[in-house]
């Protein structure tokens, strides 16, 4: 009985109940969610990436499609979708009678639940359990996020893992020991030994340091050019010069290769010489240091030994291993993930737990995991990483997006794009709480009562990215799904607003009523729009009817499932159907006899039985001359139409 009472009094009980309720509802509604536009391509990319691992033993098996810049997603990491594919195979091997797409959607949804849990524990660092739960509850019931949680294989999983990366990174910092290893020689003791050293030794040290710097600089700056000129001269002189004769002795078959081949070999040798010279110079400097300041040298060696030991210990520390692995996994989903690592390092600095060995181990583990889980990088790591960064910040220019009634190319969206859509696609009560939280945080900042680490978290996680997206007009399309990962700080601000409000409302009944009112718009809209919650717009836009023809609605085209089910009932056998857009979504749900035609091969629409058109980008207006025989609608707004030519 005491155990039961402790469970019901636990501060984690509301969160546990929320996750369990979400899972029950999620399992019930799961079959209603259709495959979305990018899923097939992403899962195919994951399958190709998985084939890269056996290719490590047999290079001839390396998937040829893992080339840079192709249309098959290689410039984004496959870590998450590889896990999805492996789970698909596991379910199939066990013979569980469930559609593959439902396995995928369940994994996406479970990942979203992990993000909810992580958000709660992040909130608990800076607010009460009631406020943290309220922020988490609001996050969980946003129609935009709930709908994306089932059908989005990229953006919501990345958002969730970004949250988990931060939560585990902060946990790692909490676990950092309070005592740090000895630092070695101090600057003061080193200065004393230097002052007491014989003058001749100091002069020799300065001379050697100068020579090392000059020779190293010359070797690194001019070495390649000198070597290239010497090799080319020796190659071209033949036996005319001493240099040419020496070259003939070293390379008697020189006539069988081009000069450039020998230049490349010489440059490769030069790299080894440069590396060896650098180590030799460092060794010489270390010996001189030991002669001039033996006590400081021994203290430095001792400190270095302690740091190496601490670093090795950090690599097997559970908190570092887990946090580093999850950050690396997240980076192998999207290259912006290291931002979470930067925030964690900043948090460690502010907590004055600057255990550099642990942070170094954290960084190394995350980098190694990212590389291991991103086979696309293997052929040319640095070049492909840089390309991924560039590609992530400059989305394809041919993509268009509907905003305020106009179609914009992704790199030409107005600066108001993101601020306006954020204000229109979050629920009204959430906006009120966010604004309240901003006011409370600003007042606390002015009174110097706002936790500095919380302020920096908000700045680096939301405000700086948000401002950069607006100022630099970062290309966006499909509303703002690509930047969902910056939304959680807004809900933390909403929690700050709730924390201020709950300080004035002590009654649990009143607090529960406030939370109910806060989530009511999202819950009602979620029921009304099911299973298209992600196209939600609040009353500032006039709801979904007000957003129609003004902003993007069903940009994932999941309404094609309902169209396919309709055609299964009414279309004659072997009907010829032209879907405009992702026609592969139709084939997944349609009768086997129905024929789907690539619209790019069509010369006359009248030659076919049906046209299927999404209202995305208002493209259905281009077919107004044809009769509409069916439409998928929510709140009176068509998402996809079937027309009879």
Total helices: the number is 25
Low-confidence parts, pLDDT < 50 over ≥5 residues? 181-185
Report the sheet with the most strands, covering strand number, pairing sense and barrel closure. Answer: 5 strands, mixed
Radius of gyration: 31 Å
Number of E strands: 7
Q: What is the residue-mean pLDDT, rounded to a whole number?
A: 86
Structural class: mainly alpha
- Summed up, the domain count is 3
Strand content: 5-15%
Helix content: 55-70%
**Main sheet: which strands, in order across?**
4-3-5-7-6
What is the strand and helix layout of this fold?
Elements: H1 2-9, H2 13-29, H3 39-51, H4 79-93, H5 100-123, H6 129-140, H7 143-151, H8 155-174, H9 187-196, H10 199-237, H11 242-250, H12 259-292, H13 294-315, H14 318-331, H15 338-350, H16 356-372, H17 381-393, E1 400-403, E2 406-409, H18 417-425, H19 428-446, H20 452-471, H21 488-502, H22 508-529, H23 543-547, H24 560-570, E3 576-580, H25 583-589, E4 595-596, E5 610-614, E6 627-634, E7 637-644
Parallel strand pairs: 3-4, 3-5
Antiparallel strand pairs: 1-2, 5-7, 6-7
Helix pairs in contact: 2-5, 3-4, 4-5, 5-6, 5-8, 6-21, 6-22, 8-14, 8-15, 10-11, 10-12, 12-13, 13-16, 14-16, 15-20, 19-21, 19-22, 20-21, 24-25
């Amino acid at each position: 009985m005491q155990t039961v009472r402790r469970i019901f009094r636990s501060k984690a009980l509301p969160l546990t109940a929320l996750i369990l309720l979400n899972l029950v509802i999620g399992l019930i509604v799961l079959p209603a969610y259709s495959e979305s536009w990018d899923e097939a391509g992403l899962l195919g990319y994951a399958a190709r990436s998985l084939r890269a691992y056996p290719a490590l033993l047999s290079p001839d098996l390396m998937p040829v499609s893992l080339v840079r810049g192709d249309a098959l997603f290689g410039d984004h990491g496959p870590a998450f979708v590889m896990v999805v594919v492996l789970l698909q195979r596991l379910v199939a091997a066990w013979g569980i009678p469930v559609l593959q797409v439902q396995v995928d959607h369940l994994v996406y949804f479970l990942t979203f639940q992990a993000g909810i849990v992580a958000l709660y524990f992040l909130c608990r660092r800076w607010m009460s359990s009631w406020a943290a739960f309220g922020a988490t509850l609001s996050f969980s019931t946003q129609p935009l996020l709930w709908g994306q949680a089932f059908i989005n294989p990229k953006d919501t999983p990345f958002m969730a893992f970004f949250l988990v990366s931060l939560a585990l990174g902060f946990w790692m910092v909490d676990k950092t020991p309070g005592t740090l290893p000895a630092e070695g020689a101090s600057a003061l003791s080193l200065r004393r030994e230097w002052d007491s050293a014989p003058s001749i030794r100091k002069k020799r040290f300065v001379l050697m340091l100068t020579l090392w710097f000059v020779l190293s600089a010359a070797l690194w700056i001019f070495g390649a050019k000198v070597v290239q000129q010497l090799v080319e001269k020796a190659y071209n002189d033949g036996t005319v010069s001493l240099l040419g004769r020496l070259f003939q002795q070293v390379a008697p078959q020189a006539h069988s290769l081009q000069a450039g081949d020998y230049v490349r070999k010489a440059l490769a040798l030069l790299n080894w010489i440069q590396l060896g010279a650098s180590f030799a110079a460092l060794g010489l400097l270390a010996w001189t240091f030991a002669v001039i300041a033996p006590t400081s040298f021994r203290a430095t060696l001792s400190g270095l030994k302690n740091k190496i030991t601490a670093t090795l210990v950090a690599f097997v520390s559970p908190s570092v291993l887990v946090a580093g692995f999850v950050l690396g996994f997240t980076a192998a989903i999207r290259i912006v993930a290291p931002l979470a690592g930067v925030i964690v390092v900043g948090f460690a600095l502010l907590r004055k737990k600057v255990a550099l060995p642990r942070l170094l181990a954290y960084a190394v583990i995350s980098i190694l995991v990212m590389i291991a889980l991103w086979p696309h990088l293997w052929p040319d790591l640095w070049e492909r990483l840089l390309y991924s960064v560039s590609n992530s910040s400059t989305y394809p220019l041919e993509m268009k997006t509907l905003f305020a009634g106009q179609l914009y190319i992704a790199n030409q969206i107005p600066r108001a794009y993101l601020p306006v859509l954020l204000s229109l696609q979050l629920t009204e009560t959430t906006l009120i709480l966010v604004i309240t939280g901003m006011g409370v945080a600003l007042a606390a900042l002015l009174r110097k009562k706002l936790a500095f680490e919380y302020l920096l978290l908000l700045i680096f996680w939301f405000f700086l990215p948000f401002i950069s997206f607006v100022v630099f007009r970062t290309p966006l399309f499909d509303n703002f799904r690509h930047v969902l990962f910056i939304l959680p700080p807004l809900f933390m601000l909403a929690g700050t607003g709730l924390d201020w409000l709950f300080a004035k409302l002590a009654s649990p009944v009143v607090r529960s009523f406030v939370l109910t009112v806060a989530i009511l718009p999202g819950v009602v809209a979620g029921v009304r729009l099911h299973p298209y919650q992600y196209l939600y717009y609040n009353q500032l836009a006039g709801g979904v009817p007000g957003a129609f023809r003004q902003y993007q609605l069903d940009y994932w085209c999941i309404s094609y499932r309902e169209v396919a089910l309709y055609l299964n009932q009414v279309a004659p056998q072997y009907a010829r159907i032209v879907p405009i857009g992702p026609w592969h979504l139709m084939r997944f749900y349609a009768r086997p006899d129905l024929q789907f035609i690539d619209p790019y091969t069509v010369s006359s629409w009248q030659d076919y039985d049906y046209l299927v058109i999404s209202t995305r980008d208002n493209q259905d207006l281009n077919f107004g001359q044809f009769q509409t025989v069916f439409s998928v609608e929510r709140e009176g707004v068509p998402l996809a139409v079937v027309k009879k030519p």
